[in-house]
User: Which sequence fits this backbone?
């Protein structure tokens, strides 16, 4: 029997892993620049964690969650997103004790049983951040700046879309106005949107179906129904973004896909991704901590997909390939191969990535392997080199080949060569 990976999942093979590691390291570096600390939660939670936070009438809860019952009869769900688990952990471990703002970030796999397509798998990978404990619009702007900084570092162009989805005071009035409008155009809506107009009309605006988009082109705007508090908050966020030199486009239809958002909603779109152009997004969720049983605690966050990010990089022809092997050691006989193995370990102890041949291949085959692996240097050791106490070093970028003492070659990586000139063949 031949086994295959499950539909909607993907193996990340060794030749791909360096790119993933490099981008993950860059994300960690940016998070730490913004003073965020990493949090890691289990990949599954009690199902109620997601039903309560995301909303029962969302596609995620209604159609896409991987839910199962364990041997103890508890309903568990593989995490489809990370904000709810982070808030659960925030409350469980009393991270807010003592006041102040908690700035947390994460990365890892998520799970949704949706139709697989480019950049959208059933097991996909996200990174994101949550700023918990401040209602300041400056926090909204900073977390948008954090998300933008990752794309800037990777040279990925984007369009930032922002909107306000109001709060519990002004949203009900807008919801009724939107429902009245949708009733008038209901015959032009899809069956799913006709159902949603009664349960959660804002969800209709989130539809990506062309018929729904056309039918709701003249729908009332949430921005026209904002209370004074939400309007002032939204204008303050826009002012902060302008101060940070981050251009943003107001998008009145932007509501995001989760029920817990209040006030600010934002999304980054890439012109390189086609119809499914979202790179990531987020928003403010000032009532979620309270809904989980905690004190009233404002918060704002975002999440972005690694798979979408890699597609954007590839379509721009990016050579962002991550870590490169520093040294490949080539042994021409058995004593030389033993010396290569010992020297590889010595270099590794110095913090230099090194590898050598384990298949007793010819010089030509080993050099081909060094080139394939992207080694910066190839060190060649044979009987003549051993007798003279030297090694032959080839710079794989320039093609220059030199002969030098092994200790001098090691010193290249520590800056202790004292300017010594190697002998040239």
Assistant:
């Amino acid at each position: 029997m031949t086994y295959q990976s499950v539909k909607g999942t993907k193996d990340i093979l060794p030749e791909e892993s360096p790119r993933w590691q490099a981008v993950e390291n860059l994300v960690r570096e940016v998070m730490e620049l913004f003073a965020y600390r990493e949090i890691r939660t289990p990949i599954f939670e009690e199902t109620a964690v997601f039903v309560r936070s995301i909303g029962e009438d969302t596609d995620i809860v209604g159609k896409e969650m991987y839910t199962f019952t364990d041997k103890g009869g508890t309903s568990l769900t593989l995490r489809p997103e990370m904000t709810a688990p982070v808030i659960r952990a925030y409350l469980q471990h009393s991270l807010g004790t003592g006041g102040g703002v908690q700035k947390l970030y994460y990365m890892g796999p998520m799970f949704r049983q949706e139709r697989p397509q480019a950049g959208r798998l059933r097991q996909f990978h996200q990174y994101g951040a949550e700023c918990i404990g401040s209602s300041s619009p400056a926090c909204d702007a900073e977390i948008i700046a954090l998300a933008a900084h990752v794309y800037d570092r990777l040279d990925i162009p984007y369009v930032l879309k922002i909107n306000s989805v109001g709060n519990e005071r002004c949203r009900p009035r807008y919801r009724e106005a939107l429902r009245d409008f949708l009733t008038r155009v209901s015959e032009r809506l899809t069956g799913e949107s006709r159902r949603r107009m009664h349960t959660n009309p804002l969800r209709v605006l989130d539809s990506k179906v062309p018929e729904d988009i056309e039918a709701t082109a003249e729908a009332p705007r949430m921005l026209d129904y904002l209370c004074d508090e939400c309007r002032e908050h939204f204008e303050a966020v826009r002012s902060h973004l302008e101060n940070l030199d981050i251009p943003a486009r107001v998008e009145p239809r932007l509501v995001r896909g989760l029920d817990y958002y209040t006030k600010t909603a934002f999304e980054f779109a890439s012109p390189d991704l086609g119809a499914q152009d979202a790179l990531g997004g987020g928003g403010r969720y000032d009532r979620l901590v309270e809904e989980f049983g905690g004190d009233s605690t404002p918060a704002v966050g975002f999440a972005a997909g690694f798979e979408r990010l890699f597609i954007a990089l590839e379509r721009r022809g990016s050579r962002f390939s991550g870590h490169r092997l520093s040294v490949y050691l080539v042994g021409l006989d058995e004593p030389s191969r033993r010396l290569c193995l010992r020297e590889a370990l010595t270099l590794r102890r110095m913090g230099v990535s090194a590898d050598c041949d384990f298949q007793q291949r010819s010089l030509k085959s080993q050099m081909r392997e060094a080139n394939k692996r992207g080694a910066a240097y190839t060190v060649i050791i044979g009987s003549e080199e051993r007798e003279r106490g030297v090694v032959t070093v080839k710079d794989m970028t320039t093609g220059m080949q030199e002969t030098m003492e092994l200790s001098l070659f090691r010193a290249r990586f520590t800056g202790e060569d004292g300017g010594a000139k190697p002998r040239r063949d």
